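Protocol step 6 of 9: fold each sequence in the batch and record its structure tokens directly after the sequence line. For illustration, a two-sequence batch is reproduced in full.

Sequence one:
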Amino acid sequence: MPVTPLILAGSTAAVAAAIGGTLTYAALSPGSQLFGHTLIAGKDPKQAALTYDDGPNPAATLELLDILARHSARATFFFVGSFVREQPELVRRVHAAGHLIGNHTQTHPWLYRQSESVIREELTACNAALQDTLGVPVRYFRPPYGSRRPAVIRIAHELGLTTVQWNCMGHDWEPIGVDGILTRIDRGLLRAKRRGSGANILLHDGHHLVQNADRSDTIRVTDALLTRFQRDGIHPVTVDAWS
């Protein structure tokens, strides 16, 4: 059968849609490695990393430090550079407590939409804020929303940063309460266990637009998770345990 312009156009559109879907998946799916390697988790199902984005936040981060200390657990905090400049003493307290601190950009943009110069500026400015505050180099980076393209991972690597994603998400920015957050985390923990991997749990101690955001549900979830981890023999780790 001859190929008509209509059939050819339909085929071209289908290919374009498939490519577009693949690129969107690569840019936004936390597990995708199509645009370059990212750190997700190790191979021990008995390990779990509690990671917190969008801080530092005086309304939540300090209380999280208390809970983590009570459970003798360390966590990973990915901080927004503009908030680091506003809350340097809080950042120093997180570091002094032994937690790992990473780069979450300066202003929390969708990086896959940005030019290379903006990507580099966002990462460099946040690095500078953290290093000026702590006096130590930054080694880990989480892109806001998990969004990236090849340039994001390449520039991060050029700056000495390992890009970190996640495989377990609590959706704690949604009004779903403690039980709703735990339900979503449980699903991620089960998936990780079935795949024979550790769990990299994404939570939030702040809000990327404002300071003093209410993260009381996240605080209660953290306490519940750490209590359960102790019961079930799951060991809290920081993401550098997997690099």
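Sequence two, same batch, same settings:
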Amino acid sequence: MPESALTLACGLAACAAVAGTLSNAALRPGSQIFGRTLIAGRDPREAALTYDDGPNGNATPALLDLLAAHRARATFFMLGKYVRGQQELVRRVHAAGHLIGNHTETHPWLHTQPERIIREELRACNHALEDVLGAPVRYFRPPHGARRPAVLRIAAELGLTTVQWNAMGQDWLPINCERILANLDRGLARARRRGRGANLLLHDGWDRAPDADRAATVAATATLLTRFATEGTRTVTVDAWG
């Protein structure tokens, strides 16, 4: 191969490797390559139950009842498009002492969106929540965890701390309670080995249907809360970590 062709081939391979690294970082929840995100604290006895894609009139009230029975608090990252139709439920979540965060207006993959759309998605959700709560929103979780530097910058400009996770139930899939718990247990064990708290990603809603069936998630939550009470794990909201 001629030297010029070899140089070009090497350059293309290097570009491909960099692109792959950046693509992975955009979707890997623990990556900090694009900037700092909040994941968890340094106490392995702490766990944050977090729920995305609500509010959902079929699942969120059941979760609130469970959390109240265990005197536990959770974090709910809500979609603006659902907040407007479930204002009383949003107020109930807030009145119960849970933390409410921004999960965008419509749930797009933000890392592929122009800055105008990113800003509109975050602002619209903030407005929906703040109109109901009468208080500013401080925390934001990007749908799918997808971000790039512009996402973090725009979130910061709007006063939002970006939150990811380190334990994932994969409950957006049609799986049962036992599989959700098995998925979470892997993340919990990994976090504890590293001396970190656990930020558990679950879903009380679904961006494609406002009344999605989340019975398996509710059942998994019941098991987790009972287990945490037995083993001495404290449930916290993500604002306890930053």
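Proceed to step 7 once all outputs are recorded. Observation for sequence two: Helices lie at 3-27, 60-69, 80-83, 87-95, 115-133, 149-157, 177-193, 215-231.
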